[in-house]
Amino acid sequence: MKKITIAIDGFSSSGKSTMAKQLAKKIGYVYVDSGAMYRATTLYALRHGMTSKDSGVDTTSLIAALPDIHISFIIAPDETQHTLLNGEDVEKEIRGMEVSGWVSPVAVIPEVRHYLVELQQQYGKDKGIVMDGRDIGTTVFPDAEMKVFVQASPEVRAKRRFDELIEKGTPSDFEAVLANIKERDHIDTTRKESPLRKAEDAFVLDNDRMSRDEQMEVLLKLFEEKTRG
Ligand code: DC
Asked: Who's near 211: CB < 8 A, 6+ residues apart?
């Protein structure tokens, strides 16, 4: 069967990562979480004092530091994928509220995007990959054979994120989580460089009222259509 490229884009906490991970496992493809790469870059900026409440992100210093930011992935013994920043496992830290609060302003910086997009394209050069993010079907892999755009209401997404944070042992305030999601939606869709938008040839998956199994069924059917013949 021919190998294809699968791009899954959508809003924050729309469930696209879980879906992309499950799909990759099922069809034996590599999974890459592009959001984790923006998050790890943000963590680097936070740790190196490149963010301040008053003046935002120190763009000049962050751009200068890009060659020192090395991001990779490993499969942990429990079979989950972990993100490494310069060799250190930062999976837990990049999911916290501090990184979530700073990641959108970092992700608007064109040089950061170019650096990470190039890395993402390298990961996908042999196809057989499922990548999720915001601009995968539009910018990273515009020729991807299968493109999916996932959407759900902000409230449903905030509830998912809220439950996820509790599960991870870092409970947060629901209203703060909802506000963060709405703010990120705004920044992600209105930024100049590769804003979040549906690729013309993407399949829209509205998963407000869909179970994981139902979503997987839809994705597998689509995959079958795209790889047939
Ligand atoms: O998918 P996520 O919530 O982990 O992504 C974190 C942030 O990274 C999100 O607010 C927008 C940004 N992002 C992006 O700009 N482009 C991508 N391809 C993936 C994520």
From this structure: none
CA dist 24 and 8 (Å) reads 11
Handedness of CA 81, 84, 88, 91 (dihedral sign): negative
Residue nearest to atom 9 of ligand 1 (CA): 104
DSSP 10: E
pTM of the model: 0.91
Check if 135 has its Cβ closer than 6 Å to any atom of ligand 1.
yes
- CB distance 103 to ligand 1 below 6 Å: yes
Angle, CA of 134, 202 and 152, to the nearest 5°: 60
Q: Which stretches of the chain drop beneath a pLDDT of 50?
A: none
With a CB cutoff of 8 Å and minimum separation 6, the contacts of 208 are 152, 153, 156
Count of residues making up the chain: 229
**Atom 4 of ligand 1 has which residue's CA nearest to it?**
35
Residue nearest to atom 8 of ligand 1 (CA): 35
Cβ within 8 Å of residue 39, ≥6 positions away: 83, 94, 95, 99, 100, 103
117, 66 Cβ separation under 8 angstroms:
no
Q: Give the three-class secondary structure for 200.
A: coil
